[in-house]
Design goal:
Helix content is about 40%, strand content about 10%. By secondary structure, it is α/β, with parallel strands linked by helices. The chain has one domain: Uracil-DNA Glycosylase, subunit E. The protein has a six-stranded mixed β-sheet with strand order 1-3-2-4-6-5, sandwiched between helices. Strand 5 and strand 6 form a beta hairpin. It starts with a helix and ends with a helix.
């Protein structure tokens, strides 16, 4: 079955954006860090060639659900070249996306592993791995226009799932920038929180970091509930 002209237009726009993101050098501290990590990997990744560039979004151009994270992990996406791929957080996320029917397989190990998303697209507020997983406000603001452009291109999206408070705040800022009315006072992040932003719904989910999953702050049923809620909202929006 052939793709619709709208699908092909979105895909072409996202491909152009991908090329621009991958060549970005706007944040000197992040450029230095991502390359330094690649030059001195831990023993478990010795001999591997790191991506060591910014990460574009990944997924279905016709997605109705957009998942937004904080930033790539130093030895995850910064190594593999795909968002949330090659680390424990990604293992948790893609297993959940598979259970929810968004991914064709429960694992994501490298760019050519056969993973496909249907109905979902994954992005991040910041596209380079930051030291200690802490981007500066200036780095966030410099990178945020990429998320804004993804929101404009992904015009079928009706649900945004924010993984953690940083992603929640970044998603709100991006939604405001593309013209959606954000309620005041600003909606507060929480696991399972919902906020109506124009025609979209923003859902909060604890980030699937080891700090959250190892301690039980985030469990598989908790994440499944959020993604099933996203699917239900997207289907009826």
């Amino acid at each position: 079955m052939g793709r619709s002209p709208d699908y092909l237009s979105r895909a072409a726009g996202l491909a152009r954006l991908t090329a621009e993101v991958e060549g970005c050098t706007l944040c000197p501290r992040l450029v230095t860090w991502r390359e330094a990590v690649a030059a001195d990997p831990p023993r478990r990744h010795a001999g591997e060639t790191y991506w060591a560039r910014p990460l574009p979004g990944f997924g279905d151009p016709a997605a109705r659900t957009l998942v937004v994270g904080l930033a790539p992990a130093a030895h995850g996406g910064n190594r593999t070249g795909r968002i949330f791929t090659g680390d424990r957080s990604g293992d948790w996320l893609f297993a959940a996306l598979h259970r929810a029917g968004y991914a064709n397989q429960p694992t994501s190990t490298h760019r050519g592993d056969g993973l496909r998303l249907g109905g979902a697209y994954i992005a991040a507020v910041v596209r380079c791995a930051p030291p200690a997983n802490r981007p500066t406000p200036a780095e966030r603001d410099t990178c945020l226009p990429y998320l804004e452009r993804e929101l404009r291109l992904l015009d079928r999206v009706r649900v945004v799932v924010a993984l953690g408070s940083f992603a929640w705040d970044g998603a709100l800022a991006a939604l405001r920038a593309v013209g959606h009315d954000v309620p005041r006072p600003k909606p507060r992040f929480g696991h399972g929180a919902e906020a109506a932003i124009g025609p979209l719904t923003l859902l909060g989910c604890f980030h699937p970091s080891q700090q959250n999953t190892f301690t039980g702050k985030l469990t598989e049923p908790m994440m499944d509930d959020v993604l099933q809620r996203a699917r239900a909202l997207a289907a009826h929006a």
